[in-house]
Amino acid sequence: MKKYICVHGHFYQPPRENPWTGVIEKQPSAAPSHDWNERVAKECYIPNAKTEILDSWKVTVKTVNNYAQISFNFGPTLLSWLEKAYPQTYKLILEADQISTERFSGHGSAIAQAYNHMIMPLANDRDKRTQVMWGIKDFQFRFKRNPEGMWLPETAVDVQTLEILAEQGVVYTILAPHQAESVTQIGVDEWEDVSDGSIDTQLTYLCRLPSGKAMNIFFYNGYIANEVAFGNMLNDGADFAKRLVKQYPKPLGRVRVSHIANDGETYGHHHKFGNMALAFMLYHVEKMRLAKITVYGEFLSKNPPEFEVKIKENTSWSCCHGVERWRANCGCRLGLHKEWNQEWRKPLRESLDWLRDQLTPFYERSMAEYYDDPWQVRNDYINALLSPSEETLTKYVWSKALRQLSADDKRKIKNLLEIQHYAMLMFTSCGWFFDDISGLESIQILQYAARAMQLAKKAGAGNLEEEFLNRLESAKSNVPEMKNGRAIYNQFVTPARDVKEKKKNV
To answer: Can you tell me the distance from the alpha carbon of 22 to that of 17, in angstroms, rounded to the nearest whole number?
Structure first.
């Protein structure tokens, strides 16, 4: 078989828990559900684990687990929530990966994701490395194997991020076609410009890196992915199959894979019954022998790249201006209010960058008393987050200290590590994605910033909040009564923190 089909689903929700209580508060906009995690789970994550395939008489032919048939990644923070909220669905997701390894020549359906959906080109070097390492550790903890691939949040990429992926043993990643700059056949020093998105998406590519390492890259078919996400492609699973198969050139030539990548929520949340269209498409392809269903790891192992690629740095799949959607008023937005602007993005980004840069030297100074390499300790801290226990902390944190630790020392170190934990959560990409700073996601990352500052003050860093709010005041809301970032912080963030403090002191 020379024809392959692969569908990748990027399943993700931002972390929504109140950082002081660990509980997701009621979100009225998600009605009739309690919150958006719950609503999307019911519409998408749960149905995709058990999807019926119907014949023309609407009789169930069989029930399938879509996750076992496609390539997918789940955000670590989403999986941690699913594990508690819907343990049966969580179990079926993990089982799907195990089942898929038998189907796809030992290659599982699941791939990892950079931990909390931080826009990697806008992160500093240390955060990039920790995000990759935490994403890998989370994957290993849940799926009991090493990930072959890693999803980059918003497919935002730069060369340094690819270097870190390669350094940590990741074999491939997935990008949008417009993120390729130029290509050539391996061994030929004559490059073809494909910066207009014209790269042949059915082939695999090798990206050589300055360090001497390399990364394999799959560029998904952007046209079909767009039709699936925003068109009516999921109205009919058979038509969906024909659209994917129609892409093969004639004559076929070398072995090819017709593949797309979309938000996993497309299949059931964004498009009702989209999970059924996906399941029927895969069923139809196999029944009619139109192509072989595969996952990226299997296809790569059987078809090593014959071509090289150079990427366009600081680009993403959801911003035609590169990565400006997460730091500027670039014009990329939902557009529900045409008169609104996103000038607030820049001061929000700069305020959080400032806060991170205040917390960094404080962390280094404070941890130097206990460790030679404070940042390696942070990298290892994910183990304690995944399996909270004194035993885990002893193995990965306490045992690596320069001296015997007292109970007070341990409390201080854990506090410092939690500051760093929240200092990364506050860069979760969704805080900038939508149209106004008063949205749920922007308030969420401000809560993480507040928690980091609160812990830092407790640890002796001084009061960073007033300067942070002074800077945040420049982030003007489009909603007149919301005013600006400072007012939003005072209205939504401070009360959440203070309620917890009052309860603690009662």
So the answer is: 5
